[in-house]
Amino acid sequence: MAELSTIARPYAEALFGVARADSAGLTAWAELVAEMAQAASHPDVRSAVADPQFDSAQRVELFASTLKTPLSIDARNFLALLVENGRLLLLPEIASEFLWLKNRHQGEADAEIVSAFPLADAQVAELVAGLEKKFGVKIKPVVSVDASLIGGVRVAVGDQVLDTSVRAQLDRMRDALVA
Predict the structure, then answer these.
(1) Is residue 133 within 8 Å of 107, Cβ to Cβ?
(2) What's the count of helices (H) and strands (E) in the chain, helices before strands?
(3) Binning pLDDT at 50, 70 and 90, where does residue 159 land?
(4) In CA terms, which of 86, 90, 114, 132 is 20 to 30 Å from 150?
(5) Could you tell me which InterPro entries the record lists for this protein (predicted)?
């Protein structure tokens, strides 16, 4: 997976540069890139754009026709670049990298918070405040429940994971006893 993100990063950085200069704004570009990524993830679209009977221009038009959002010249040029380099199917990874760049630029970070039990709004707010202090960025939480954690929470912010779940503690104890 790291290899795909390494390939996707330069495309995301180039697109981010275009998006920053565009009057539409980063949010509009992030939504468009997310829509492109979703389309590129669909099995029917993947097989259609990989079909050798289509030339590059036809692939761009075919892919553009799957999107609800009308494409600007810059977006079409980006699609054409991806098609020419055989990277169109990397759009989900490019979208992920683009979102990371956007969040970093805006001083934000997504936090995946997984709890063993449903958290009250006040608990989430308290946890987010602590995370914002620790990481020095505005946190956008995505909260979910996973009963297999038994108790506690697991928080992922970017590539950093804070796991205070009972499941993680039991796993650490097991590893210590086995070693």
Answers:
(1) no
(2) 8, 4
(3) confident
(4) 132
(5) ATP_synth_OSCP/delta_N_sf (IPR026015), ATPase_OSCP/dsu (IPR000711)
